[in-house]
Batch of 3 targets.
Target 1
Amino acid sequence: MFTGIVSDIGTIRTAEQRGDLRLVVGCHYDMATVAIGASIACSGVCLTVVDKGPDWFAVDLSAETISRSAQGVWSVGRRINLERALKVGDELGGHIVTGHVDGIGEVVAIVPEGDSHRVEVRVPANLAPYIAPKGSITVDGVSLTVNGVRDDPDGTCFGLNIIPHTWDVTTLGTLSAGQRVNLEIDVLARYLHRMREHVANV
């Protein structure tokens, strides 16, 4: 489990196809405190540490994980948001995040608003019912609050207000229109939708 509060930005150093895709990710973590088998969220995807060095760790990605991730996110040189797994007693600063990508969004607009940035993201039709104003969503591993939702003929879009701190300490500051991003809906919204669906079918 995670909170969506990014604690480091890593850089993919190597990507080697060996059945699964093996990535080596450079980071600033004290790797002496990271065990083999530990979970680290990489741009919103929960991955398992399979090897490590003084300033890097390695993870394996299955074809299923790659197919459900935003295009280009696992490229060599790509900077990715990192978060270590939540420990009992840690501050829950964001919201409960599982590290399971529910869908891929597309950034359609980025507009400065004061010192912040307004970012608009288009979502797949199957995710639209789970997104509500003032609800939580995870974008590339970052816990954010939905400012507004708009249902257009060509799809549903939601808006985010990215404050300067978040813009500076995550990869969101490098977003551009047309870029694909990993999305995880609020786990509470997922269960509520399932409950309503089940009651309707009983």
Target 2
Amino acid sequence: MSGGPPVRLTNATGVTESGGSWSPDGSRFAYMQLHNGLISLMVVKTSGEATPVLLREEPAAPANPTRIPEWSPDGRWIAIFGRPSDGPARGTWTLISPDGKTVRSLEQVNGGEPAVLSLTFSGDSQRLYGIRAEPDHNYLFSIDVNSLQEKIIGDVGRDFTPRTYLSPGVRLSLSSDGAHVLFPSFRNSSSLWMLEGFDPPGWGMELREMLPW
């Protein structure tokens, strides 16, 4: 933050590395890696040019776009989205401990929330927040981390579906007071116009319209 040249986080070569999340003490970073058709959750020390450690990997699936992992403020969990080999055919959200030894599936919460592009923790790590995109609604909801009970907070409106041009790129960010959540969204629009003042088409244009290709 004081300036100077950037420092590469990992020493991995020949792989694609995507965005991730800091551990609470800033000493480690969790991110997703794509290599040889596998998508992997990696953890690496933030000392620079460090060797990453594999926590989990699975076959990359176009139907399950990569989500950004989220580290809980208390350091106990990393929320990730994926489809482990012993899990359901579609992707689900899962909580995994930073050492990879403990895994809690969110399968019982709306089937693991496959339509949710990002989850973020509350400041006390007791709740997860997400936005579920449905055909006519975008519901902001919370999940109790211990009981896995879901609560619908409200509908943010059809015009505010979490989306981004980057993949992965959707991330929910909770304000420090826990009162607001920030996320990216965009809307496409198009218009049909009639233009005047152009010269009529010449013989070359007419000939091109007559050709079969």
Target 3
Amino acid sequence: MIKVLHFFKTYYPDSMGGIEQVIFQIAEGTRALGVQSEVLYLSPRGAARNEAVGSHLTHRSKLDLHVASTGFSLSAMKDFAELAGQADIVHYHFPWPYMDLVHFLARLNKPTVVSYHSDIIKQKWLLKLYQPLMNRFLSSVDRIVVSSPNYAAHSPVLTHFKDKLAVIPFGLDRATYPRATAEKLAYWRARLGERFFLFVGALRYYKGLDYLLQAAAINRLPVVILGGGFLEGQLKQQAAELGLANVHFLGGLADDDKAALLELCYAFAFPSHLRSESFGISLLEAAMYGKPLISCEMGSGTTFINLADQTGLVVPPRDARALSQAMQRLWDDPAMAQAMGANALRRYEEVFTASAMAGAYADLYRSLL
């Protein structure tokens, strides 16, 4: 049994983002392939050891400070050194500058993997300070994994590390998603109607939701936004100013509600416009549910999932009019929408299953040992 320690700034149940989902799918999926995964993360709830999530163990270190999306912890240095000492491989999840410091302070003599989830886009002045440490960290690890060839080709950072790069697409397991009950489906159908566009995700600066609202103001088609976040109040105010009775903000909901909405929606709108969105796990979830997709071309993994005019429509980023037209085109042509949804499901089954991702990571772990 290969023992792997994953290290990231947050994890279930504290947060439910895309990176957490990826770590969960790797940990669960590689178990049958002879890999025992554990996860160390920072938590405002304080320290704890050996908590079960699914069929793997998690450990928390106390979160002491949070600055510019970076969590810091004094106790995590000791916790990491102890847990990494018991592991065969350490698996980092980038970006998280504090992690780089811990890596060097621990003086590890273990094989190391980095899943490179995103370039640093927003904190440009902090990036200048961090860059020397980042480059040293990425130079010191054994393998860097990126989730799509698109992101590898367009990342200004990854072009310097081509010799240690591997492409392993993220994957999902439909069996880990709850099945929506007839009652739940009936409830949402009665509340939202028979046809609507769905967005699922945290309401963050790079998600392009202001452009989705502008598009909804142009075409007046029904839009459902599932998720919470810092921008929720601002986006609701924008919707009110635009008089958008056709847009429904649902906030954060339980997984069975999300499953029902993914099953019911007519199509999936994903207007992320910055490369902070390196992949788009919720876009992949919609493909898994056989839905036609709308996304933006920005040289990231979104157009690795959504192939233009095959699995859905691809529009320029920050273009509300083009987004509105794509929505209208799908709405007016149900046969095309259905065919694109079927193609999206087929692409998920061929490229993006959790078993394919788990197999590739298990092979990578074995190669490092």
